[in-house]
Amino acid sequence: MMGMQPQVVLLREGADASQGKPQLVSNINAVAAVADIVRTTLGPRGMDKLIHTDSKVVVSNDGATIVKALDIVHPAAQTMVDIAKSQDNEAGDGTTSVVVLASEFLKEAKQYVEEGVHPQIIIKSYREASRLAIEKLKEWSIDISRQDEGEKRDLLIRCAATSLNSKLISHQKDFFAPIVVDAVLSLDEDLPLDMIGIKKVPGGTLEGVAFKKTFSYAGFEQQPKKFDHPKVCMLNVELELKSEKENAEIRLTDPEQYQSIVDAEWNIIYEKLEKIVKSGAKVVLSRLAIGDLATQYFADRNIFCAGRVPDEDMRRVVKACGGAVQTSIHNLSPDVIGSCGKFEEIQIGDERYNIFSDCPEGKTTTIVLRGGAEQFIAETERSIHDSVMIVRRALKNSKIVPGGGAIEMELSKFLRNHARQIYGKAQLVINSYAKAFEVIPRQLSDNAGFDSTDILNRLRQKHVAAGEGGRWFGVDVDNDGICDCYEKFVWEPLQVLCWSPNLAALTCRVGQAVRHRSRHRSSVSHTQCRRDHQESSGRGAGRCR
Known about the structure:
- By secondary structure, the protein is an alpha+beta fold.
- It has helices spanning 21-38, 63-69, 75-90, 95-114, 119-140, 149-164, 173-185, 256-278, 292-300, 311-321, 374-397, 406-419, 425-436, 439-447, 452-465, 500-509, 519-536; strands at 16-19, 49-52, 57-60, 142-143, 196-200, 205-206, 209-212, 226-228, 231-235, 283-286, 304-306, 338-339, 342-348, 351-357, 365-369, 399-402, 473-476, 481-484, 491-493, 512-515.
- A hairpin with a 2-residue loop joins strand 13 (342-348) and strand 14 (351-357).
- Helix 1 (21-38) packs across helix 3, helix 2 (63-69) packs antiparallel against helix 3 (75-90) and helix 4 (95-114) packs antiparallel against helix 13 (425-436).
């Protein structure tokens, strides 16, 4: 007994810990379960998913939207959600491809984990294969930065149309793609996403800024609703009489002083309104309320006003019309007053919208969507957002590659050839990494109802036999075969393909997982256990475990 070691209690009671091979396999299975949910949404023939919660219904085939809507609790599967969000924020599209590819990388690694290969060997081989793949992608990519403006716009329209291929509005991609490209090209060099407004009402497209009619008081209908070349005053000032606070007390020694106090309140508001009128502005916007007195005052002087303008819309008006938002009316100089070529309030569907067009700065655009059901308009907005992000990414990085599974097949062929030139376990791992790339054309074929085995055999033969001439051949979802995706204008930005290996390496590095139960749940369970023990005394031997 002298040689026995005392037991070391490291974790709190109720904590679960798992490590080693079972933990790795569990993480890989969790990631595969998430990928199985979204893989049927891949490509132009992908299916939609309907996700119903207590408050709303989401109908979408966008990978990022689906994984965000899922209430995932497994920590390894949650990393899949994070990588999809990163892809959506960085590239805007390709979230489903990233999730499916990452899952396939881990599926290929699973067999080696089960056979006892150390995870670090797998990670090292995957990173080497990823480095080679990214180098080849940059070598094969097509640079559009040196094209003239007309050719560049055509290339961007094709990238936008490729993004819309798998969306709900794919049949209208020829209509939406030029709109998206023109909206992005109207921005400044930084391409700020918040300068493109998307309004979900029956309507069309507009150049400039549009926002929904705000709450208005009596006298608003007497104001003019159309101006040519107006000055625009943008404020963060409340233009209404202030009411006294509760329990406010004013002591007066002379009853005539009460009227002077009332007059002072009116003089303050009138002084503000007169200074705004003297600035020459014909359109007055404020983030705060504009009361009935100010509304009627402006109406009598043929000035349009709108209060409680949303901050997002106000920033876009400033960007388009120039000037600056003022928190005081005591310094309304000409350099803080904006202008536009035309202002009007028009009826769009059931709503009235304030439209600023022919803006001198011209660094913002509004897209007004028209649709039926709320879910349809919401999915259309998500599709437009993805397409906008793809065009932004193509403009920033200016390198594109053909889609349709063509680039994945070429990478698979290149890595298979590379694996034959090395020795050891890395040869098997890199060969499996190359095989994982084929999941994209295989899933595209399955989702389109084609024979994926036949399509993959034809693609392998084309890529090997034709050399560089067959490099851009991918799945032809329109004709149940293969085609040159470059000639068919199925293009996507280079950045879309560079994220999946990170998740595979991260998941393989996790060798142990520890899960703590919350203290609240633990104390509740012990209290309940003691209660059960007391109730069972006299009837039997109750005990807590």
